[in-house]
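Researcher: Let's try something more involved. This one mixes different molecule types, so please make sure each is placed in the same coordinate frame as the others.
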Amino acid sequence: MHPIILLLIFIVSSLVGYKLIANVPSLLHTPLMSGMNALSGVTLLSALAATGAAVAFGSRVFGFLAIILATINIVGGFNVTARMLSLFKRKEKAK
Amino acid sequence: MSDLLYYIIAGVLTLGVLAGIAMMSRVERSSKGNRLSAVCMALAVLVTVYRYQLISDAGLWIAMALGAALSLMGARRVKMIEMPQAVALLNGFGGVASAIVGAMELANPSVISGFSTATAGLAVLVGTLTLTGSLVAAFKLQGLMKQQPHIWPAHTAITILSLAVSALPVVLMTIGLPVGWTTALCFMASGLFGVAFAARVGGADMPITISLLNSFSGVAAGIAGLAIADPLLVAIGGIVGASGLLLTQIMCRAMNRSLMDILLGKTTVLTHHTNAVPWDVSHKYGIPAEDGADGEALIGSEEPETNLSELMREAKRIIIVPGYGMALAQAQGLVKNIADKFEADGKEVKYAIHPVAGRMPGHMNILLAEVDVPYDQLYEMDDINPEFERCDVAIVIGANDVVNPAANTAEGTPIYGMPILHVEKAKHLILCNYDTKPGYSGVDNPLYLKSHKITLLLGDAKDTLAGLLAEL
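Model: All components are placed in one shared frame. Result:
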């Protein structure tokens, strides 16, 4: 994919994301942040691709490390977000 | 899989993630939104494995299983008050993963284009500073490092120099110098920059640092995506980067600080204790002074206890203002008990949440939600501020700077211009604080002056609230 197109995707997704995130009430800012945090683990995709292509033993080891860390980021992030969101209850249900 | 098909799938998954974020704008749908995002990520992993024909590469599956198992063990155990450091740590992990991918791309002899080299170098830079910055932030929040700003000799010079020295190797490798030593230099200098900028930020400024590091981890992923030309990574990295930036802006506004000040360490609190509040302050704020009040801070409550219980019995509208001090004392449960008692008597109870209450954006809300405070009683600053005038009793628990009226008047102090919760407008004010010392900002709080509309209950929030509960 052409670098210019990639840069455009980066800019457009940032702007759209910014618009959508501005609608999230401050009540949910902590789970929002941990959810976004989980998404930043998307780098797992690049770790998988790079490690799969790597042949040298050293590169493989670093690749595995990146995969483990990115997976912790994704799974942990979504998990704590789910835990936090499950805490929010309306008045009737809280009683 | 053809590239075109992958681009279409990447587009659909990005839309799925965006839809998940849109669903976070309402509490009722937020859990579903989170699940939708998670499903999109799982699909993205499967698609990637299929696309690069890695299904038979057992090592990758084992690494992912190991990561998932480790994170589930941690994620189930982390307490809500520890959430800021947990998020910081996870941020760091994502950042370093991107840095490693950048380094692997640089080591890959088939990568020749200048664009790939530059972006891979930047991924190393941003990823590494995210890691070290997040680790410092997490250590501070966990109490493994002192929370106060750590200021080294020539701190600003080290900060700027380390950033410049991190950027230089990226330029050098792009114009064709060997990637070996340039990458190593970039790792070390950006690592130092991360430490230098996070070390100088104090405890109460943590919400800003965490938001910023969150943004960095997204940007690192996006840049890694540019390096390997993967549109899905680029799109999601961009979204996360924007989200972190937005939260950083909100936090900066709520603290009346500029981002540059935070980065260059001008966040430091007053170094010497200044008396920012003139003694005649009680008149200025319309706080009626008691006869013979000489402006000395009130030590302990001189109010007869019967007054307090009568006051609370007669109150119709009550606003509770929780601060981080409440969380430190683990007094959320008692706060909820008191609120329950008020409600059982038919009184109206609302909670006023300042945007920077806690150690990360929105932290106070989850701490209260954890003890079953219904979220429709939690009010944002702008919504609750007009209501203080009508409220009979405002109860402040472990909050200081965010209710300090000096923020409106004490020019030249760190909190000047910071939006505050206008508790001073309540008909009566009960302040439960550990002591009358100034808050984190170092600015005296005029609310501690003698006044018959203010009851000061000093000590650990757990004890004072238990006393308050007994009065009811």
